[in-house]
Amino acid sequence: MNRFDERDTIFSRLELVPGSKQYDSYYTNRPELKDTDDRLRTLSAGVYAHDRSNMARIDSAFRFLKDIRPLAPGPAKAENSSQNAISIKEIEQGLHAAAMDYGAVLYGQAVLGLECFYSVRGRGPAYGKPVNNPHRNALIFAVEMNRGKISHAPRPEEAVEVTRAYVRVAVIGMILSYFLRELGYEARCHMDGESELILPAAAQVAGLGKIGRIGLLLTPDFGPRVRLGAVTTNFPAASFSGSNLNEAHQPADYCARCDLCARRCPGKAIPFKAALETGKVGLQNTTAAKKADTNVAPETKNSPWKIEHKACFAIWKKFGTDCGICVSVCPYGEAQ
């Protein structure tokens, strides 16, 4: 099975510090990426960097998320009699209720295949560590991002809303993890910067939506205006299964007819044609395929469309925000 190495994501690569051991080791193995990545590192702060108030809100949210990442994994509470006193069904109901009470708008459960997990970690203290024997039972959930605020893309107001969603979904993951640990089960929260999971792929398995042209999960009611979180656990929920998404929900068909995101993308990072049409599908475990994989998002690895993350991130640097134009213009969900 050809799993994705998180060290090959653009976020991991651009966190590498020139001259460090990790930097030297990575680009020794991936020399074809070094010049382009180094150019991205040297780009200016962006046209909206002067908006210090909103930038401080964004930076403070990410600093908070970084501070709580060590809490994402944690041991189960030892010798807890509650595990036998509460039925599996009651715990499932409690998990779902807690997620929704803390702001989730979508919630699902699934047994994940290993393809939903990174093969090797690429961020934080776990950098370079293999992801071995993860718990495959997963709770996947999403929070909605406000339509009006997302419509400000690519201005900082959009990025403030995105970081607010990252914080909200991280809190939900922490609450569910602590709830399960309190009952004697092992649980790990997967959140921004601290995830063993490729979250859009996991959410697709859990039935929350399907990957669209923009490389993000498209949901029936909210389109791409969601942020995802997850908890993996050894809790033996009775309802863990594959996708139960309505078969009528087929964003690939919709995306094939609509190319608004590709037309509006300032970085030309979103393809007009599917990979099948451009000849990129069919490279399997070849050297060319592995090199190509480093320039696309891991969640789109098996998608008809391949987002070019280097082009996307260059626009992020130009604006000084996460752009978000593709999310703001996507009509899916709004038009259903």
Structural class category: alpha+beta
What is the overall number of helices? Answer: 15
Main sheet specs: 4 strands, antiparallel
Distance between the termini: 36 Å
Q: What value does the average pLDDT take?
A: 89
Beta strand count: 6
What would you call the shape? globular
* Major sheet: arrangement of strands: 1-2-6-3
How many distinct domains?
1
Summarize the structure.
With 336 residues, the protein is an alpha+beta fold.
Would you give an account of this structure?
The protein is of the alpha+beta class and 336 residues long. The protein has one domain (6-329). The protein is built from 15 helices and six strands. The chain has helices at 10-15, 21-29, 31-41, 52-68, 82-85, 88-101, 147-150, 156-182, 199-205, 251-257, 260-264, 275-278, 287-293, 309-319, 325-329, and strands spanning 106-111, 137-144, 187-190, 210-211, 217-218, 226-233. The strands form two sheets. It has a four-stranded antiparallel sheet, sandwiched between helices. A two-stranded antiparallel sheet has the order 4-5. A hairpin with a 5-residue loop joins strand 4 (210-211) and strand 5 (217-218). Residues 276-292 have low confidence and may be disordered.
Task: List the topology elements.
Blueprint: H1 10-15, H2 21-29, H3 31-41, H4 52-68, H5 82-85, H6 88-101, E1 106-111, E2 137-144, H7 147-150, H8 156-182, E3 187-190, H9 199-205, E4 210-211, E5 217-218, E6 226-233, H10 251-257, H11 260-264, H12 275-278, H13 287-293, H14 309-319, H15 325-329
Helix pairs in contact: 2-3, 4-8, 6-8
